[in-house]
């Protein structure tokens, strides 16, 4: 529309209204951010436009207007300040821009790495953050994406909450299309995650985001600061929003370097029980203020993380450094931070498997997935028999006590002789063996499984699938019993049978989406499940635990006629030696859907590789994958 104004590629020296472009800082879901200068001062200029990562481009302008409305209501030293907003190059139809203070500092994660703070320094920092959150909530503004990247720390040590692109206020219009508002999945509250699990496929279901969700998110950040010396670089961190599992306490995770009182406070903020968590930001700040007065070396002198834990591991002298791990040329410090997460341009190709990055996909031979499972079943049966025998010959154990409903029960106060102290004997670590619940197979299949290619299930297939589900459920219940073999449980289907792809799907992929169909061609790279974060967020936490069931993914970048961010519906199978997936429906711009046949494939092999940390019932794999568009499911 404006030939001389490309918001994604403004050059240094170019003027936007009265602001001179210095450099591009980064881009996100609906905007690109630049460092700008006027009258010798630096500012941040955020231009609303459709980027390659836009999931809902039609809402771009609306989100910019809502961000402005939120920032206009806020005035706090620890919240980013908006100076002005407008449109450019045309006052009525131009791109929406926002001018903000330039935060010269680091993300919260980088601050942890650079300063290696003491417990007291962390307490002081989060006191200011909770004070800012209290101010925000008093103005009826919800941030909805308080993450390690959306909290900056200036070089003077002042925290600043930034990026209100996902924020909401009391009278704002609803811009969310899905059950949950945009945000960082890791920092979503247990109740929000439970809502998603129950309503992800219900059209029109909407979660009501509350102040307690913001409080949980800030508590999740505190937990990561206390337990992880390199929060931005860590690939595997414990899940925080599970209704079933609680992560290790910061005291345990750091072997006592986090004082017991601060550890108990952090666990209180992320407790799965709403009655345990603080109800308001004011309550959370008041509880934390009590810890600011603590004296002693363990609070004010000893860093939480040993310096050695923040160093990158040295590669073996005999092996060359991988290309993706090499440091870029040129000076690296200092890098001024900003009110928007920096997205390294070279990270895309390194993160996505070769098929997703556009590399050739070799012809994929049919895997012998029906190979005999006798050995595995026999081993499981022997193990189950031993377990069953030991249980039968062991006196019954009493029920474990319920989960503590208050922090003091888990972490006694300082006056108690049982209080956690740096000199306390460490707790016994949890058993590395999976529990019965963890070992149980995920057996919930869609009603029209296993074909997933037709909107109306075949009655014969439904009857056959129902019998199969009944057997699988029975087998899952008998997983720790010698009755496994007697029940005829020779194995669980790790993926559906090969079958032809519907003609209408092949036609839609070729003509409407412009895709090359066949195993010799690479398909689009996809984010397997949009509920587990955006493509940018997966760089912070690239792997996750998967389970069988329906899934909605999104294209990482444009492919043929299909735009970046296009949603695709499908199903995952996770009980085998790999993660297998088939996507059968694409959501086109405008709301229309078309059938597709898109199969997960990486480096010439179907499915995604299981990563370190996988265990029965809880496989770990990448959040992104390559694909192939097929005429026949393999």
From TrEMBL:
MF GO annotations: ATP binding; protein serine/threonine kinase activity
Enzyme class of the recorded protein, top EC level: transferase
Residues given in the record as ATP binding sites: 46
Pfam family, one: Pkinase
Region span, Disordered: 175-195, 307-359, 395-464
Domain Protein kinase, residue spans: 19-308
PROSITE patterns xrefs: PROTEIN_KINASE_ATP (PS00107), PROTEIN_KINASE_DOM (PS50011), PROTEIN_KINASE_TYR (PS00109)
SUPFAM superfamilies documented for this protein: Protein kinase-like (PK-like)
Entry's EC annotation: 2.7.11.1
Keywords: ATP-binding, Kinase, Nucleotide-binding, Serine/threonine-protein kinase, Transferase
Biased amino acid composition, Polar residues: 448-464
Family of the protein in this entry: Belongs to the protein kinase superfamily. NEK Ser/Thr protein kinase family. NIMA subfamily.
Record protein name field: non-specific serine/threonine protein kinase
Organism in which the protein naturally occurs: Stigmatella aurantiaca (strain DW4/3-1)
């Amino acid at each position: 529309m404006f030939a001389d104004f490309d918001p994604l590629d403004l050059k240094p020296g170019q003027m936007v209204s009265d602001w001179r472009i210095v450099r591009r800082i980064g881009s996100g879901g609906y905007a690109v951010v630049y460092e700008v200068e006027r009258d010798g001062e630096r500012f941040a200029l955020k231009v609303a436009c459709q980027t390659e990562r836009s999931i809902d481009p039609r809402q771009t302008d609306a989100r910019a207007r809502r961000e402005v409305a939120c920032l206009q209501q806020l005035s706090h030293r620890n919240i980013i300040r908006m100076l002005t907003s407008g449109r450019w190059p045309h006052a009525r139809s131009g791109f929406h821009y926002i001018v903000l203070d330039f935060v010269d500092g680091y993300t919260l994660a980088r601050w942890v790495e650079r300063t290696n703070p003491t417990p007291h320094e962390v307490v002081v920092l989060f006191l200011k953050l909770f004070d800012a959150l209290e101010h925000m909530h008093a103005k009826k503004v919800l941030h909805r994406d308080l993450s390690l990247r959306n909290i900056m720390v200036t070089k003077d040590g002042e925290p600043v909450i930034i990026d209100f692109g996902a924020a909401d206020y009391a009278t704002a219009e609803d811009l969310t299309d899905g059950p949950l508002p945009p945000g960082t999945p890791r920092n979503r509250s247990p109740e929000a995650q439970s809502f998603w699990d129950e309503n992800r496929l219900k059209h029109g279901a909407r979660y009501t985001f509350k102040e307690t969700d913001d409080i949980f998110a800030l508590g999740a950040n505190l937990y990561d600061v206390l337990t992880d010396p390199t929060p931005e670089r860590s690939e595997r961190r414990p899940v925080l929003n599970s209704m079933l599992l609680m992560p290790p306490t910061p005291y345990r995770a750091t072997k006592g370097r986090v004082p017991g009182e601060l550890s108990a406070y952090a666990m209180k903020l992320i407790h799965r029980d709403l009655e345990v968590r603080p109800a308001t930001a004011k309550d959370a700040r008041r509880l934390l203020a009590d810890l600011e007065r603590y004296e002693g070396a363990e609070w004010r002198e000893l860093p939480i993380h040993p310096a050695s834990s923040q160093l990158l591991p040295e590669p073996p002298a005999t092996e060359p450094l991988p290309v993706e791990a090499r440091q870029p040329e040129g000076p690296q410090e200092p890098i001024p931070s900003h009110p928007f997460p920096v997205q390294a341009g070279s990270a895309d190709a390194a993160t996505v498997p070769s098929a997703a990055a556009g590399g050739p996909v070799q012809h994929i031979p049919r895997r012998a997935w029906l190979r005999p499972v006798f050995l595995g079943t026999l081993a499981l049966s022997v193990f189950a028999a031993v377990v069953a025998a030991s249980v039968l010959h062991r006196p019954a154990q009493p029920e474990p006590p319920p989960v503590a409903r208050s922090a003091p029960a888990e972490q006694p106060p300082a006056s108690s002789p049982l209080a956690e102290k740096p000199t306390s004997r460490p707790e016994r670590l949890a058993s590395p063996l999976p529990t019965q619940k963890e070992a149980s197979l995920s057996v919930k299949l869609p009603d029209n499984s296993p074909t997933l290619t037709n909107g109306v299930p075949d009655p014969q297939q439904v009857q056959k699938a129902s019998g199969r589900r009944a057997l699988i459920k029975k087998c899952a219940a008998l997983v720790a019993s010698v009755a496994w073999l007697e029940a005829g449980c020779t194995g669980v289907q790790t993926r559906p049978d090969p079958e032809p792809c519907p003609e209408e799907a092949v036609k839609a992929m070729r003509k409407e989406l412009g895709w090359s169909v066949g195993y010799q061609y690479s398909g689009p790279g996809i984010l397997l499940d949009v509920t587990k974060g955006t493509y940018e967020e997966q760089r912070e936490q690239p792997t996750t635990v998967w389970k069988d069931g329906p899934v909605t993914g999104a294209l990482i970048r444009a492919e043929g006629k299909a735009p970046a961010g296009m949603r695709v519906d499908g199903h995952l199978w996770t009980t085998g030696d790999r993660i297998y997936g088939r996507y059968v429906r694409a959501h086109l711009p405008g709301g229309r859907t078309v059938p597709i046949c898109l199969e997960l494939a990486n480096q010439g092999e179907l499915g995604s590789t299981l990563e370190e940390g996988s265990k029965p019932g809880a496989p770990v794999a990448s959040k992104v994958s390559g694909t192939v568009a097929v005429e026949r499911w393999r």
